[in-house]
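Researcher: Please translate sequence to structure tokens.
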Amino acid sequence: MNNLYEEYNNVKMQGKVISEKVLNHEIYGEKFYTFNLEVPRLSEAVDIIPVILSERLIEGDNIKVGSMVKINGQYRSYNSAENEKSRLVLMVFVKEIETIEEVDTETPSNEIELNGFLCKKPIYRMTPLGREIVDMLLAVNRAYNKSDYIPVIAWGRNAKYCENLEVGKNIKISGRIQSRQYEKKYPDGTSEIRNAYEVSVNKLEVIE
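Model: Translation complete:
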């Protein structure tokens, strides 16, 4: 059964640890830690991706600032209470981690495959530079009757194709996880810079 759910949600990443690991929570005596992973893009830009892993995968100082690591896991969503409102938090949940000397340029450093269901109507729009883009939210089943809710964006022909898809459609995608910053403005006139995370689609298939 677990292998089935791994086919629904599979992440492979390589990158550099850029923050100290911090205790996130403990469940049934098992502690889970978070840290940020810097993942290179082909454009020489980088994505900063939050990662969560069990203490059972930590060996000595294999997870320290500056370490290069290779990760296999899943993209998970969690609800976090903030100012009495629930906020979606996205992290890569590590199933396997390996210390490496450097990023292997022969293989993708940021790869994700998802098989899930549209849970909101797609939002189609044009960017200021005239590119077609569609925003979607995908519900991906997980073991123990849980689901992860993953923001997904598609461009160009994929965006146009997804514009009129109905809620509940089964979609299979492959792409990469990306990070970006945006400015959150408040009614009192103040603002702050926040980070957003989403999956950018390379390939997309509607499962009938």
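Researcher: Any highlights?
Model: The two ends are 22 Å apart (CA to CA).
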